[in-house]
Each structure stands twice: as C-alpha cells, then as structure tokens.
Design goal:
DNA Binding (I), subunit A; two-stranded antiparallel ribbon; 2 strands; 2 domains; mainly alpha; 12 helices
Length: about 230
C-alpha cells in the first residue's frame, strides 16, 4: 500500500527533529530523536487507516527523509529535491528554531493531550504552524465554553472598537458593529507548548481584517507581536 504524502504537521515535526539531530554529536541521542519522531507521527490523527501498518512512518522511513533534508540543506542536492512546503518551513524557521521547537511541542500536546483534530487551514493560505495548532486555536476562540461566554459579554458591553487597529466599526456599521467584531485568542506559542489552561484575559476583540492578519503567521497569535506588526 502506497504511503500518503506528509501533511504540514508531520513536516514541522520532521524539520524540528532535523535541527535537534544537527545540534548533537551523540549518535544514541540522534537515534532516540528519530524513534520519537516516528512514534509521534504515527500517533497523529491524520491517517488512522495506516496505524497498524508497520511500514507507516517507521524509523527507517523517517531516517531517509531526514537524510534528504540534510542533503539539500548542506547543498549536496539541489533544492528541487525537496517539496515546496518543506522548503517554505525551512526558510520560515531556519533562523528561529525555538519557535519551531515550540510549535512541534504544541502539536504533540494538542494531538495527545487535548485530542483535538485539526480544522482546514485558512482558505487559499498555508498556515506554517500546522493544521492541528490552527484548528485548536480556532476552537478556543469560537466554540470553547470560555469563548462563548466572552462573546456574550461583548454584546452586553456594546463594544465596537478593534483592540489592535482601534478602528471603531460603528462609524460605518452603526449599531451592527458589535456583531462584526471577532474574538481572538491572543496567547503566544509558548502558551500552547506549555499546555496551560486559557483565561478570559487572553481574549481580545478584532476587526475582520486584523483577525485575518493574526491568523497569517503563528507569531501573530500573540497580542504584542500582532500590535507591533501593524503600522498605525
């Protein structure tokens, strides 16, 4: 049976493991990293029909994929030997391996601790933090009990101003402006990696444009980073 291509969450874990292996000369530790990668990916919720197949994402297969990445990164092979998505992730995180490490840890926690299945990525856009992280984030700010309660409070408070760009939507949409604001869960990636419980203070209200921008990169989940990234 032909194995399915890697999804973005698997690629993130693969490349994070590559950086961890590059950071040590300990062969035993490198092997443990490869074993952990295989075990983790086999446990993700994307391909349940392959879970009992010993060839599915096994250590030998992961080792080969890691070697392919190394051959391209060290310029032994041309970049055309890797998929566009792998190259995008390498480019995005090659100078920010800690961010990648936190994302990989978050993917593990979301998959195994929370049992949350990823939602589709933003239409026409690849989210380089992975589908599981994006899916969990969207669930936190839309259907979680806390999000529902905060949203009810918004209606009662009659808020119409975006927390980031400060645009008052009532200037255009009058009394309907409150219904146009969207709830955003503004926690940094470290929060997801540490598996902390959400609090009401982590929710902010955004206009649709700022919210779409906040979902364009994992670093922009965080309120301060999002605010710093917008020119006023």
């Amino acid at each position: 049976m032909k194995m399915p291509p890697l999804v973005i969450d698997e690629i993130i874990l693969l490349i994070d493991t590559y950086y961890k292996i590059c950071a040590t000369d300990d062969k035993a530790l490198q092997h443990l990293y490869r074993e952990d990668l295989s075990t983790t990916i086999r446990g993700l919720p994307f391909f349940p029909e392959h879970k009992n197949n010993p060839k599915f994402r096994n250590v030998a297969g992961m080792t080969l994929l890691l070697m392919n990445i190394d051959n391209v990164v060290t310029k032994k092979w041309p970049i055309t030997k890797l998929s566009k998505l792998k190259l995008e992730i390498i480019k995005r995180y090659e100078h920010d391996p800690l961010m990648l490490r936190n994302i990989a840890q978050a993917i593990k926690l979301i998959s195994f601790s929370q049992g949350v299945y990823g939602l589709p990525p933003i239409p026409n856009r690849v989210f380089l933090g992975g589908n599981l992280l994006l899916g969990y984030h969207i669930q936190l700010e839309t259907i979680s009990n806390m999000a529902i309660q905060v949203q009810k409070n918004l209606v009662g408070l009659n808020i119409s101003t975006c927390s980031i760009c400060s645009n008052d939507l009532s200037n255009i949409y009058n009394s309907r402006a409150t219904n146009l604001l969207e709830l955003h869960f503004a926690a940094p990636i470290e929060w997801y990696a540490e598996n902390k419980p959400p609090t009401t203070s982590q929710f902010i209200f955004l206009c649709p444009n700022c919210h779409r921008f906040a979902h364009s990169d994992v670093s922009l989940f965080d309120e301060k980073t999002l605010r710093d990234a917008i020119k006023f």
